[in-house]
Amino acid sequence: MISGTGSFTKARNGTLELTGQSTYSGTTTISGGDIIISISNALPSNPLTFTNTANIYIFDSSITQTIGTLSASGVTGAKIDSAGTLTINQNANGIYSGRIIGTGAVVKSGSYILTLNGTNTYQGGTTISEGTLRVSGGNALLNSGSVILADVSGALLDVITSETIGSLSGGGIHGGTTYGNIAVASGATLTVNQTINRIFSGTISGAGAF
Question: pTM of the entire structure?
């Protein structure tokens, strides 16, 4: 366990396994090697930045990990390999150019914009519970993956370049206002390969196609 008011940096090429729940209040920076998360919330829910090629591994499907603002702008060698549930509480706008893979799920929370522009293949689906998830690059979401938009104000899937997903659901209408919406940019197409029955109650807007 790592505690205190300071920040934590994982450097160089070795592997560090975290088996305790750290509570330090500073930022987390990963500049090399591997971090294995062996207990839920081994990292605190503080901003996490990749500055170089490095990996985070969550091997157990029962593990949940919440992090703060995620960023790795231009760091395509960053990777999060998760079998559990990763919640990203985005409290500032950030770009993640790395990959998220594995059998686990991703939950986007926090009111700010998280941009995914790497090739992500995580299989557990995506839930946008708050704020904007912006996807670009064409492979930010798994073609067979599910997307659920919460029935809350401000939950938005912002599609910048063409994306294909496996199923779409969520959203809501209250007092004539829709919640849990999708925006598709000009030149982009959102394709939904819906193989199961689901209801989407939000709106789809923008100059793109659906």
Answer: 0.96
